[in-house]
Write a structure and sequence with these properties.
The chain has 291 residues and is mainly α. The protein is built from 14 helices and 3 strands. Strands 1-3-2 form a 3-stranded antiparallel sheet. A hairpin with a 4-residue loop joins strand 2 and strand 3. Helix 8 runs antiparallel to helix 9. The longest helix has 18 residues. This is Ankyrin repeat domain-containing protein 50. InterPro entries: TPR-like_helical_dom_sf.
Length: 291
């Protein structure tokens, strides 16, 4: 494994292809090149491609016998980072990267419906999306996935990691497809929800206001909107009326909220002992969103 040049990797892959008709092992190896470096890979991560567990194990044993991977512990394996790097270069040079990443996105989708999802698999999913965000042909296929990954991290109380992940993707997408692309706007909206959940209301408001200037559509995403409106409601119940109002205004812009939400908010306001104590201007502004 000392010589891990692209030519050496290609020769090994060619040998596998000449010996085995089933491309499973090679596909698994290629996809693994985009997983997080120096981190164990659980074999079950490939079950969306290969429902047959024994087939996965056989492919892993084959890759080990060819010195492309190393066994670690608990039925996991690792692809040395030097081999991952050379493999990514090889795939890009052969115009195969997009095909491999498309398969990798399928794996990410599979992982995100698993409950619970292990921390290692989540790290590999984030790594895949990092590479996808640089691939302009595949960016559309990742829409919605970063937000789902972020929410998995939140359920594990990893707010900082979720915010860092979204910020990193946001930066990459700004460079690869621009700030007005749907994928970029989607992550920006997800990030506003994460910031609100963490209590960074001012940052969330700035992001939301920026979104309204670009595209109002992204203030209608159900899951994140629920997070944001719930946060605003909590601020209101803490008698932080000005902050609550600013957040509602940032969420909905100039739009009126739905009739269902309107009824719920009116009930909340009137049941709050502090509502009648607010000045009339604030009461009027709150009611604008409940008409």
């Amino acid at each position: 494994m000392e010589n891990c040049s692209g030519k050496w990797i290609q020769r090994i892959v060619d040998q596998i292809g000449a010996t085995y008709e089933n491309p499973t092992a090679v596909n698994m190896f290629y996809i693994s090149a985009y997983f997080k470096e120096d981190e164990g890979i659980c074999r079950h991560i490939f079950l969306s491609l290969l429902p047959d567990t024994e087939e996965v194990h056989s492919a892993v044993r084959l890759l080990k016998s060819c010195n492309l991977i190393k066994f670690t512990y608990h039925s996991m394996f690792i692809v040395p980072s030097s081999i991952q790097n050379q493999t990514r270069i090889l795939l890009k040079d052969q115009n195969k990267e997009t095909i491999v990443l498309a398969e990798a996105i399928g794996l990410v989708n599979y992982l995100l419906i698993c409950d619970p999802i292990c921390a290692l698999c989540l790290n590999h999913a984030m790594s895949v999306l990092k590479y996808v965000s640089n691939n302009t042909e595949l960016v559309n296929s990742m829409i919605g996935l970063p937000g789902r990954i972020a929410m998995h991290l939140v359920t594990q109380n990893k707010f900082n990691q979720a915010i860092s992940f979204c910020n990193s993707l946001l930066s990459t997408l700004h460079e690869s497809v621009g700030g007005s692309h749907k994928a970029t706007l989607e992550i920006q909206y997800d990030l506003s929800g994460l910031l609100a959940l963490k209590g960074n209301h001012e940052e969330a408001i700035v992001l939301l206001q920026s979104l309204h200037e670009k595209n109002l559509e992204y203030s209608q995403k159900d899951e994140t909107t629920l997070i944001l409106t719930t946060t605003a409601k909590e601020l209101y119940e803490l008698s932080k009326y000005e902050e609550a109002l600013q957040l509602y205004q940032a969420i909905f812009g100039e739009r009126k909220i739905s009739a269902t939400t309107s009824r719920r908010l009116r009930k909340t306001y009137r049941s709050n002992p502090g509502f009648e104590g607010t000045d009339r201007t604030q009461q009027k502004n709150f009611k604008i969103y409940c008409c």
